[in-house]
Amino acid sequence: MTKRTVRLLSGEQYFDDKLSIFVNRNVESYELTEHHHDFLEISYVSEGLGTHHVGNDVSNVSRGDLFVIPMGASHVFRPASLDKKRPLIVYNCIVTMEAARNLLNSFPGGSELEVLLNLHHITRYKDLTGEVQHYYSYLHREFSVERPGREAALHTGLLQLLIYISRLQSGHTNPQVQSLNSSMDQILALLQRDYAMPFTLSQLSSLLGVGERQVQRLFVQYTGETFSGYLQNIRIQAACRLLVSSEIRITDISAAVGYQNTPYFNDLFKRYTGLTPREYRKANRS
Asked: What DSSP character marks residue 209?
């Protein structure tokens, strides 16, 4: 039997005196051999298909797969194909254990997350909402561009990522709760993106697979607002941006954010902002 070669990746290759966090976006290939490291690694499959090799175990990976890889655990990602049009892209956030512990100890409640630093085996999660993609895009951008607040931004992003993973982990103990939480996250993301669409409580009830009364309770629990209040708030915020950043007529802005009845939109806008759309545009441009 051929003996596997497992290479050590040292933090000295990635960290310097100023920064104990490293973030990259890697197009996986067959060049990197199986390896372990002396730091904590959190990896996220952003695009493509491939496999993850952990010792003698091989598992398929795809977009949304998230891995917490503790010190000493050996692994490597492999693409399903060498076709450059179908790459396997993995984001990696690595941090020294000292920096990770210092980060959690510096925040009230941070000790709740330390379980993620004490894992002995590689742990896999599934990001069903795409939220982790946003965290990694933020972390990669902050790491790649040196500007004021860079170190603080990276630690803030890492903390948000750890909080999210902790919630995924707790959801694993109750599949029904995890499914409902993930569904609500997707509903909120849908409303944020397509706020101008004529959503109804009945539609959201069908998407979540629960009754309309429970949908209302979930909205209040998640957002502090009713469904209609939450949607109105998103639409008015979008209208505010359009009023300030464009010359679009108020009638067209009303339609663009989901209100075909302009007088109703005007009344609603004033109720939320204290100004009519015209007054708001004038005040914020002066």
From this structure: T
The dihedral through the CA atoms of 55, 57, 60, 65 has a sign that is negative
Q: Do residues 262 and 250 lie in contact, with contact meaning Cβ atoms separated by under 8 Å?
A: yes
DSSP notation for 33-69:
PSEEESSEEEEEEEESEEEEEETTEEEEEETTEEEEE
pTM: 0.66
Tell me the average confidence (pLDDT) per consecutive run of 10 residues in the chain, 286 residues long. Answer: 70 87 93 90 94 92 93 93 88 95 92 91 85 90 93 95 88 54 78 91 85 88 90 94 94 96 96 93 84
Q: Is 43 within 8 Å of 32 (Cβ atoms)?
A: no
Domain closes at, from 172, 198, 229: 172
Residue 108 DSSP code: T
- Give the number of C-alpha atoms closer than 13 A to the C-alpha of residue 71, restricted to the C-beta side: 11
What domain range is 60 assigned to?
7-172
In a domain, 2, yes or no: no
- pLDDT (0 to 100) of residue 124: 93
CA dist., res. 74 & res. 105, Å (int):
28
